[in-house]
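Quick note —
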Amino acid sequence: MQSETQERPYQCIFEAAGDGLILNDAETGLVVEANPAACTMHGYKRVEFIGLHPTTYLHADSYTQFTEWLQEVKFDNLFEATLIHIHRDGSLFNVEVHATGCIYQERVHLLSVVRDVSARVRDEQLLRQQVEARTREQTTLLEISQNLASALELKPGLILDQLRVIIEYTHAVLFSLEKLDLVALAVRGPQVLEQAMPFRIRLDDPQTQTALLTEHKPQRIVDVWSKEPAARLLRSLLNDQVGMLFEGVQAWMWVPLTVKGRVIGGIGIAHAEPDVFTTHQANLALTMANQAAITMVNAQLYEQAQAAAALQERQRLAQNLHDAVNQSLFSAGLIAEVLPRLWDKNPAEGRQSLEDLRRLTRGALAEMRALLAELRPEVLIDSDLGDLLRQLGNAFTGRTNIPVMVTVVGHGDLPPDVQVAFYRLCQEAFNNIAKHARAAQVTVHLEHAAAAVELFIRDDGQGFRPEQIPSGHYGLAMMHERAEDAGLVLSVASRPGHGTEITIHWTKKAE
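Predicted structure written out below.
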């Protein structure tokens, strides 16, 4: 009688606990006892839950873990894990389980404290998905920035194609601003729109000029055929061109192209469905437009440099491009915005993301330095060859995500044409590796001797048979010609499945 009285308080605690409590026989695994919280959590009445085998309420992936606990159960063992349980209706839910051994009715049992954490797991998964989505977006933006910033000649169609990578649309037009005319440079959409090229839109109305040329932010219209003031203003602006530009269109967005506070054009984006463009997409489009604006300015500067064909003009262009590079790389900072939340949640993933950010930024900077070197040939002559090769390697890694290890032994000055030839040959080798090798790693070894220089470029890719190069592939032939013109000896060793090694040798001529 006294034992029953002593056990009653514990029974009351057992039944009143907010967390689920489940007692399993260590030998059979069967449920011996469960409190109301555990029964409700799983959708059973107590009489139904008692006697259940764990396979009834445990997911197969979690049952293995549970059986290991049963086999190792001791009084001093504490087991903790997040498992998947099965509701009576067959639905799955996540639980956090803390279990330990105990004696009940003179038999060893496993007592589990079970807490439903499905909501927390869903929130974590949602946050992880959001972080991954934002990281992908920012990585894509950085890649787009690299693609656009590296194009010295304006390719309007490329800008619209890159935009489609981050924002789905049915119609898009890239405009440049010439005084008060919007001049279409490229279009994407139905054939009737493409056949109308080139066309221009006159901005005579002051209200339109204010909306499109002074408000440096995206303008969104839910439905271009609605009666809202912005939609009516847009239709009046286009006049006879409404049917051409808005055929099959409802949602519309205007994104200005701005450089140093001055609108130089814009992108009109349309979709067949109404109200599809979100604030987040508008911000992405504006980031992209900033890069496109820089590209347009760079292209204009490059055209001026080509027309002038003078060293002073090229140097001025290089300086302007340098300034633009600093702007174009700001998108890398957007990636860092998601890192604090990711770091708080998972430091390991946070560290990996930081490494990815470092690699992307380092590669982008190297690409831009290489671009500046192209515009200022004296850079290829005045710089150290080892530094130039490291720059090429960083740019290659940033572009392809293939690591490059560059080692340099010794130091020496080379004739200008020889140094440029080494640089160009390594550049072409990287291009061939990116296109054909399917490599996972590249090593570059530069060695200076007393009267000679040797460069080795190795990749661990798929390799090929040098004697069986398909017609139309002129990369190696051009490399041999460039090497011979500069007095270098180039050799290629490769076979399928064993990668490729390119050796470039130069010997100083006796005086």
